[in-house]
UniProtKB/TrEMBL annotation:
Domain Ketoreductase residues, every copy: 10-190
Protein name (record): Glucose 1-dehydrogenase
EC number: 1.1.1.47
Coiled-coil portions: none
Gene Ontology molecular-function annotations: glucose 1-dehydrogenase [NAD(P)+] activity
Family to which the UniProt record says this protein belongs: Belongs to the short-chain dehydrogenases/reductases (SDR) family.
Species: Streptomyces olindensis
Keyword NAD on entry: yes
Keywords on record: NAD, Oxidoreductase
Family annotation (CDD domains): SDR_c
Amino acid sequence: MNPTYDFSEQVALVTGAASGMGLATARAFADSGAAVVLADRDPDAVQTAAEEITGRGGRATGVVCDVTDEQQVEAAVRRAVTEYGRLDMAFNNAGIQVPPADAADETADSFDRVNAVNLRGVWAAMKHELRQMREQGSGAIVNCSSLGGLVGLPERAAYHASKHGVIGLTRSAAVEYAPRGIRINAVCPGVIDTPMVADMVENQAEAMAGILKEQPIGRLGRADEIAAAVLWLCSPGAGFVTATALPVDGGFTAH
């Protein structure tokens, strides 16, 4: 059983919110009383997700947002503030994978694409969230890194570069903003049962089998388990926690 939180009168923004860990976290925020802005590049899926939350009594707004476009990110943050009056919490979750590649054969396009979403997208979201939160003098941000932000694995150099970069962004911004009442952390999911991982299992079966063999807990993680970690990091229970990169990985990074 997950802890329960009272986030009533608070506002959360989640990127990559139409499926997987983002949707699970948006649901969890709403179930805890927060108004939630769901941002995703898929217009139909994000509206469906927002309607599902409002249909069960939550407060939710779906916004089309491609995090590689800083103007769209700024507009999503502005929508949250315009509609609900403030911004208290954010989960910068939008991310992509790229096919595994020998480091000597990785294309510049592949490197640029994964970093545009996973690193620059987090940077842009955090930047505009902080502009609002520093006016308020309060807030909590969780950036989505990965077990790939903590370790190295063969044929994952570009993806891992993006996820290591998220931790660097998180730690530096957290030190800067801690005196201003804003906490910034990263969550580092392991192999989680999401649509992206399902695609990897199907198309990268051999590589994924090796990764799963290294999972001490013996199973895939669940999206709601990542949501539980994010909510804790945003809650008063984590009031003395900032600049950390929290593994939620079934023990993978202990190897």
